[in-house]
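agent> Task received from the user: take the single chain below, predict its 3D structure, and emit structure tokens. No templates, no multimer pairing.
agent> Plan: (1) validate residues, (2) run structure prediction, (3) serialize to tokens, (4) report one or two observations.
agent> Step 1 OK, no nonstandard residues flagged.
tool_call: predict_structure(input=
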Amino acid sequence: MLFMVVSRAKLGVKREELVERYSRQIHPETWDLVRRGNLSHVLYKVGDEPGFFAVLHAPSLEEAKSLTEKTAERLDVFDIDICPVSLFPHFD
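)
tool_result: status=success, residues=92
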């Protein structure tokens, strides 16, 4: 299954903290997700609220949540939305 992972800054987190945190190199565990094919299309938001958008491949919503929870320490400045998506416009 495909999932859209979208970040939103947590209440009270300043833009400068987000920019500083996410202008570093991608963490090795994140690269592992990319190499295994779980994570693709990692894009970074620009403007007033920096953050990211990514496409996550996982067998289920529970597994998608589990994969993102493993990185919770690095994502502690964000609230994360995980939404099932499809390449085709059928709505179940």
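agent> Step 4: summary for the user.
The CA atoms of residues 27 and 42 lie 13 Å apart.
agent> Done.
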